[in-house]
Amino acid sequence: MSGEMEVRLYPLPNTGHEDKGTYALYRGVPDLVNFSNRLEIWQNPHADLIIDRFSGLSADLYYVTFHDGINLHVFIRTILREGCTDPNASNYDPAAVIDNGSCTYNTQACPEITSVVSTEPGCGTNSGVIQIFSTGSSLRYSINAGQSYQSSNVFSGLSAGTYNIRV
Question: pTM, whole model, 2 decimals?
Protein backbone atom coordinates (compact mmCIF):
# COMPACT_ATOMS: atom_id res chain seq x y z
CA MET A 1 0.00 0.00 0.00
CA SER A 2 1.30 3.41 -0.83
CA GLY A 3 0.33 7.01 -0.28
CA GLU A 4 -0.38 9.89 -2.54
CA MET A 5 0.72 13.47 -2.15
CA GLU A 6 -0.56 16.50 -3.97
CA VAL A 7 1.95 19.31 -4.20
CA ARG A 8 0.46 22.75 -4.80
CA LEU A 9 3.18 25.21 -5.61
CA TYR A 10 2.35 28.87 -5.73
CA PRO A 11 4.74 31.61 -6.75
CA LEU A 12 6.42 32.93 -3.65
CA PRO A 13 5.56 36.59 -3.15
CA ASN A 14 8.12 39.19 -2.16
CA THR A 15 11.12 37.14 -3.25
CA GLY A 16 11.97 39.36 -6.19
CA HIS A 17 11.89 36.28 -8.40
CA GLU A 18 8.21 35.35 -8.31
CA ASP A 19 8.13 34.46 -11.99
CA LYS A 20 10.85 31.83 -12.09
CA GLY A 21 12.46 29.17 -10.00
CA THR A 22 13.17 25.49 -9.61
CA TYR A 23 11.12 23.11 -7.50
CA ALA A 24 12.31 19.71 -6.32
CA LEU A 25 10.77 16.88 -4.33
CA TYR A 26 12.97 14.95 -1.88
CA ARG A 27 12.34 11.90 0.26
CA GLY A 28 13.80 12.73 3.65
CA VAL A 29 16.04 15.68 4.42
CA PRO A 30 17.21 17.13 1.09
CA ASP A 31 20.70 16.12 0.02
CA LEU A 32 21.61 19.41 -1.60
CA VAL A 33 25.13 18.28 -2.47
CA ASN A 34 24.69 14.95 -4.28
CA PHE A 35 20.89 15.10 -4.71
CA SER A 36 20.79 11.37 -3.91
CA ASN A 37 17.25 11.45 -2.53
CA ARG A 38 15.72 13.80 -5.10
CA LEU A 39 12.64 12.24 -6.66
CA GLU A 40 11.51 14.94 -9.04
CA ILE A 41 12.57 18.33 -10.30
CA TRP A 42 10.62 20.83 -12.36
CA GLN A 43 10.94 24.41 -13.50
CA ASN A 44 8.43 27.17 -12.95
CA PRO A 45 9.20 29.67 -15.70
CA HIS A 46 5.87 31.43 -15.15
CA ALA A 47 4.04 32.68 -12.11
CA ASP A 48 1.40 29.98 -12.51
CA LEU A 49 0.15 27.55 -9.94
CA ILE A 50 1.77 24.16 -10.33
CA ILE A 51 -0.11 21.13 -9.12
CA ASP A 52 1.60 17.79 -9.28
CA ARG A 53 0.26 14.59 -7.83
CA PHE A 54 2.79 11.98 -6.79
CA SER A 55 1.47 8.50 -6.11
CA GLY A 56 3.19 5.34 -4.97
CA LEU A 57 4.97 7.16 -2.17
CA SER A 58 5.68 5.19 0.96
CA ALA A 59 5.02 6.63 4.39
CA ASP A 60 7.83 9.07 5.05
CA LEU A 61 8.77 12.69 5.42
CA TYR A 62 9.05 14.56 2.12
CA TYR A 63 10.52 17.97 1.39
CA VAL A 64 9.69 20.29 -1.46
CA THR A 65 12.32 22.89 -2.16
CA PHE A 66 12.04 26.06 -4.24
CA HIS A 67 15.11 27.91 -5.40
CA ASP A 68 14.28 31.33 -6.76
CA GLY A 69 17.80 32.06 -7.98
CA ILE A 70 18.83 33.69 -4.71
CA ASN A 71 17.25 31.84 -1.79
CA LEU A 72 16.29 28.26 -1.13
CA HIS A 73 12.85 27.77 0.43
CA VAL A 74 11.96 24.41 2.00
CA PHE A 75 8.48 23.03 2.65
CA ILE A 76 7.84 19.84 4.59
CA ARG A 77 5.09 17.29 3.96
CA THR A 78 4.52 13.97 5.71
CA ILE A 79 2.87 11.03 4.00
CA LEU A 80 1.08 8.82 6.46
CA ARG A 81 0.37 5.34 5.19
CA GLU A 82 -3.27 4.33 5.21
CA GLY A 83 -4.30 0.74 5.67
CA CYS A 84 -5.46 -1.81 8.19
CA THR A 85 -4.03 -1.05 11.65
CA ASP A 86 -5.63 -4.00 13.49
CA PRO A 87 -2.98 -6.68 14.17
CA ASN A 88 -5.76 -9.28 14.46
CA ALA A 89 -6.89 -8.71 10.87
CA SER A 90 -5.76 -10.92 8.01
CA ASN A 91 -4.55 -7.90 6.01
CA TYR A 92 -2.80 -6.04 8.87
CA ASP A 93 -0.28 -3.48 7.61
CA PRO A 94 2.31 -2.71 10.31
CA ALA A 95 3.42 0.41 8.41
CA ALA A 96 -0.10 1.87 8.34
CA VAL A 97 -0.70 4.85 10.60
CA ILE A 98 -4.24 5.73 9.53
CA ASP A 99 -6.91 3.03 9.62
CA ASN A 100 -8.86 3.29 6.39
CA GLY A 101 -11.50 0.70 7.27
CA SER A 102 -10.08 -1.96 4.98
CA CYS A 103 -9.44 -4.60 7.66
CA THR A 104 -10.66 -8.09 6.84
CA TYR A 105 -10.89 -11.03 9.13
CA ASN A 106 -10.75 -14.73 8.40
CA THR A 107 -13.83 -16.01 10.08
CA GLN A 108 -15.06 -19.54 9.93
CA ALA A 109 -18.75 -20.14 10.17
CA CYS A 110 -19.72 -22.04 13.29
CA PRO A 111 -20.21 -25.73 12.56
CA GLU A 112 -23.78 -26.92 12.49
CA ILE A 113 -24.91 -30.43 13.35
CA THR A 114 -26.92 -31.59 10.35
CA SER A 115 -27.90 -35.07 11.60
CA VAL A 116 -27.15 -37.72 14.19
CA VAL A 117 -27.47 -41.40 13.41
CA SER A 118 -27.52 -43.80 16.33
CA THR A 119 -27.64 -47.54 16.68
CA GLU A 120 -29.00 -48.72 20.00
CA PRO A 121 -26.96 -51.27 21.91
CA GLY A 122 -28.21 -54.82 22.24
CA CYS A 123 -29.75 -55.81 25.52
CA GLY A 124 -27.13 -55.60 28.23
CA THR A 125 -24.24 -54.88 25.80
CA ASN A 126 -22.02 -51.91 25.01
CA SER A 127 -22.55 -52.08 21.26
CA GLY A 128 -24.27 -48.72 20.65
CA VAL A 129 -22.99 -46.34 17.99
CA ILE A 130 -23.49 -42.61 17.50
CA GLN A 131 -22.40 -40.94 14.26
CA ILE A 132 -22.52 -37.13 14.05
CA PHE A 133 -22.79 -35.29 10.72
CA SER A 134 -22.04 -31.55 10.61
CA THR A 135 -20.91 -28.70 8.42
CA GLY A 136 -17.29 -27.61 8.51
CA SER A 137 -13.97 -29.36 8.34
CA SER A 138 -11.26 -30.38 10.80
CA LEU A 139 -13.81 -30.58 13.60
CA ARG A 140 -13.70 -32.29 16.97
CA TYR A 141 -16.69 -34.14 18.42
CA SER A 142 -17.97 -34.80 21.94
CA ILE A 143 -20.80 -36.89 23.39
CA ASN A 144 -20.22 -35.88 27.03
CA ALA A 145 -21.10 -32.14 26.93
CA GLY A 146 -17.60 -31.11 25.88
CA GLN A 147 -15.68 -32.83 28.68
CA SER A 148 -13.61 -34.64 26.05
CA TYR A 149 -13.38 -34.48 22.27
CA GLN A 150 -12.16 -36.70 19.47
CA SER A 151 -11.46 -36.10 15.78
CA SER A 152 -13.68 -38.98 14.60
CA ASN A 153 -17.39 -38.31 14.21
CA VAL A 154 -18.19 -41.95 15.14
CA PHE A 155 -18.53 -43.11 18.76
CA SER A 156 -18.86 -46.83 19.28
CA GLY A 157 -18.96 -49.28 22.18
CA LEU A 158 -21.65 -47.22 23.88
CA SER A 159 -24.07 -48.40 26.52
CA ALA A 160 -27.68 -47.30 26.70
CA GLY A 161 -28.01 -43.79 28.07
CA THR A 162 -28.36 -40.10 27.31
CA TYR A 163 -25.56 -38.32 25.46
CA ASN A 164 -25.00 -34.56 25.10
CA ILE A 165 -23.48 -33.98 21.66
CA ARG A 166 -21.16 -31.06 20.81
CA VAL A 167 -19.09 -30.18 17.79
Answer: 0.38
Domains of the chain (ranges; CATH) run 3-84+93-99 (2.60.40), 113-158 (no CATH)
Three-state DSSP string of 2-24: CEEEEEEECCCCCCCCCCCCEEE
For the beta carbon of residue 71, count every other beta carbon within 10 angstroms: 12
C-alpha 91/C-alpha 106 separation (Å) is 10
Per residue in 18-64, pLDDT tens?
546 677 777 777 777 777 767 666 665 554 555 555 666 666 677 77
